[in-house]
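Troubleshooting: if your tokenizer reports a length mismatch, compare against these two reference records.
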Amino acid sequence: MTDGMNARELFKSHNSLTYDDLIILPGYIDFGVQEVSLQTRITRDIELSAPLCSSPMDTVTESEMAVQLALLGGIGFIHYNNTIEQQARMVRRVKRYENGFITEPVVLSPKHCISDVDEIRSKHGFSGIPITEDGTLDSKLVGIVTNRDVDFEQDRSTLLGEMMTTDLITAPKGVTLGDANRMLRDSKRGKLPIIDENGRLTALVSRTDIMKNREFPDASKSIDKQLMVGAALSTRPEDRDRLDALVESGVDVVVIDSAQGHSVYQIDMLRHIRSTYPDLQVIAGNVVTQDQCAALIKAGADGIRVGMGPGSICTTQETMAVGRGQAAAVYHCSLHCREQGIPVIADGGIRDIGHIVKALAMGASAVMMGLMFSGTSETPGEYFYQNGVRLKRYRGMASIEAMDVGGSKRYFSEDETVRVAQGVSGMVVDKGPIRNLVPYLCQGLKHAFQDIGVRDMRMLHSILDSGDLCFETRTQSGQREGGVHDMYSYEKPALGTRERVE
């Protein structure tokens, strides 16, 4: 006996279903949750340990997000609302991170105060600061300040020149990472400055970086053992120069970032990339139909990004009356892409673990998220308080604010005198670091796979194709019943934390 409907039956009515419109029926469990693997592909050649990508939005992904997400098994895509040089520099920071050498360390001068160290610690999470003569990398290294130097000093206005350690152990420029690590172990110091022949600081090695391979066994790494990172570019002709700079910086994959990816502009850019950099992995999109997928795959796409208007800050469907329910979009696009051996990234519409599960069950190999990662410590921007709540800004790339600094490239409206916004700006609550969030999401996904009765992504997509994966649609009352209801107050687990709701 078979309950429910398989995916073909579910979508034969051509309803524009969203994730909330359906529920997955359970399968048979004959394995432990620890046996579930989330290994997946986001392009023909790029594999990840976790099916999680961060969106190339200017309030979501820069180098800090990309580094931390790669360490946790996903991958970050750095936005292009910046200059070519700025984006390329962010890519280099990610690529050089796992090498162990911090090539652009934060430095201060002897005339800075302990309060400046406190500010760096609050913003970046570390407090081991090299001290140079004038507080730049262009002057001689004269000392270093660590927690041990400043933690118990009551007067935070004390100059660092009075507190810094001047008895330094350094290594010469050109030292290998292995030798640098051995010097750190032997010296029992936390930081090892690398200096040139003139005594100027060129890099820094941290003891904590030696531990990275043990702490992050699932880190996303390229063949050269560096962290993997993606970057976005537009279809504008000038972004061919951006492409050159990104490739030179070592980018592993680029995503052509268009709101409507089925265009002559994107196809021309794809063909240019294929002819200029045939080995570079390219994700194309955004699309929502099989015809769109077919055109981009034919032009050379290695992965397809699916979604038009489902994002929390996106108003495309409402403003343009064009798009598709995200569950339907992911299913139909994945159906064609799997036949071609091309992975699909479901972009947008993710509010919780269940939505990620449904996206993968529809055939996606990974999800790309903005809202889920917004407000975390690694996102760009400063925290601020409103009505006693700690917040960060979050905006759509088609919001007026983002378009003012380059987001309009994504919507073919860069040169228009009258611009129509397809997104909004807003605020999100502080979610803390993603090192807590991502393991929470991955553990939730493993439990969901176990409930469905599959051990990995390959098996999930296999039963989707065979028709053994069954679904039912949900009424509004069914959706309400499936959530918390009829309570005066309750404690709701939110992204690895607990919050009280009344």
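Reference record two:
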Amino acid sequence: MSSVLARSETSLPSDAAVAHPAANPLVDAIYDPVTGSVQYIVTCPTTRACAIIDPVLDYDDKSGSTATRNADALLDHIQKHNLNLVWIFDTHPHADHLSATAYLRDKTGVPVGIGEGVVKVQEFWKTIYNWPQFAADGSQWDHLLKDGESVRIGELEAKIISSPGHTPASMTFLIGDAVFVHDTLFMPHSGTARADFPGGDAAQLWHSIETLLTLPDETRVFTGHDYPEGREPQWESTIGEQKRHNVHIAGKSESEFVALRTKRDSTLPMPRLLLPSLQVNINAGQLPPAEDNHRHYLKIPVNAFPGANW
């Protein structure tokens, strides 16, 4: 299945004239139907500087093959619209797809960033993969983002909000009237992210969501996944819609949410690509070093999670 490019109503027109408030970003999305992931190109309407958020490296777990169709589609879009890529961001180390961050950095020379909480994720998974020499210090990225920090995308200010709960490293990007939440919130009919991964916490997730819900109701919310069944994929809502209609949080107390999230998480199997993806994603999208036959290998630790649902 091929990736699907879609644009929000404020996306970039083909010509140079852009009628859009300079403080608000233009948002284009590429949806990957294989993993249900949404990748974003966020553009300053004045300068055409842009950032990529959560790029996907194509991976076929049946054959062990990788490809760069999704990442190349992002680059093609940037070239077509004469944009200037200035940042590549991971919102957290993903458990359901491999990151294309390293590939894109190699192709463009653009700096890559992730939340500073990534070191907690690295510390756990280096033990699982038996990598005693792995540097669990976030040095695989060019910049570790801190809560409350801001970075520039042209004339846009991207504010960093720490959003732990799904993982200790989860970060939200608030850029003008748009907020990029990835796995913290799904579309209102789908609820919220699971909180049972190592380092996850349902109560933390609740407080992260509460922080996001203090944003203005008209704030556009862009989530990182959708799993449609018999409909088109969706990824854009608003803070107001989330407050009124999100099936996991609307009308719920913290204790009710934690109970709901914990009960649901206890029934979920591990993501299909968790074990292949984490060893790549804690390394900023880099495959493990090639061995003496010039081939890369992914490790699958056996019985590392004996209580996991099948």
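Descriptive notes for reference record two:
- The two ends are 26 Å apart (CA to CA).
- Residues 14-281 form a domain with the Metallo-beta-lactamase; Chain A fold (CATH 3.60.15.10).
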